[in-house]
Design a protein that fits this description.
It is a single chain. The chain is of the alpha/beta class and 160 residues long. The chain contains 6 helices and 5 strands. It has helices spanning 14-26, 42-51, 70-77, 96-103, 119-131, 135-155, and strands at 3-8, 30-35, 59-65, 82-87, 112-113. The N and C termini lie far apart (47 Å). Bound molecules: 5-O-phosphono-beta-D-ribofuranose. 5-O-phosphono-beta-D-ribofuranose binds next to strand 3.
Length: 160
């Protein structure tokens, strides 16, 4: 059974990151959640990045805003796949700063970056990564995608 670690630079990121927590809980995937700041708790970040894979974590979701170094720094320390969530935070100019800080990683240190405030997709992507080697989780994703289709088909009825 896979496990996802969801970390964020500040508790102020939680309203955005909650979407990742919620969808992973809906999929019945084990999550751990913590505040890890690249700027304010660099030692904790180093410890987390170095040890997450040895603690049974399979995928890391990292959210941060503004000068959003957390996902890239953790990716530099960990062999695990890292999904970055750019957060439009109080110190973010317009969200582009968060997006580009997380997206524009140099070759060799990938961060799979989702949309601005796109924590829900980060959760789904983490589940899909785990599902690549876990048939039960993959079946959960198949069912979820079917439900998206059904919702659209239902919403197109009785439009006029
Ligand atoms: C980033 O600075 C955090 O990830 C957050 O998005 C932003 C603002 O943090 P607070 O000042 O609200 O703690 O490092």
């Amino acid at each position: 059974m896979g496990k996802v670690a969801i970390i964020m630079g500040s508790k102020s990121d939680l309203p955005v990151m909650q979407d990742a927590i919620d969808i992973l809980k809906e999929f019945k995937i084990d999550v751990e959640v913590d505040i890890v700041s690249a700027h304010r708790t660099p030692e904790k970040m180093f410890d987390f990045g170095k040890n997450a894979h040895s603690r049974g974590i399979n995928v890391i979701i990292a959210g941060a805003g503004g000068a959003a170094h957390l996902p890239g720094m953790v990716a530099s320390l960990s062999p695990l796949p890292v999904i970055g969530v750019p957060v439009k935070s109080s110190n973010s100019i317009d969200g582009w700063d968060s997006v580009l800080s997380i997206l524009q990683m140099p070759g060799g240190v990938p961060v799979a970056t989702v949309a601005l405030n796109g924590a829900k997709n980060a959760g789904i992507l983490a589940a899909q990564i785990i599902g690549a080697s876990d048939k039960d989780i993959q079946n959960t994703i198949i069912t979820y995608k079917e439900s998206l289709k059904t919702k659209v088909i239902d919403s197109s009825k009785d439009l006029a």
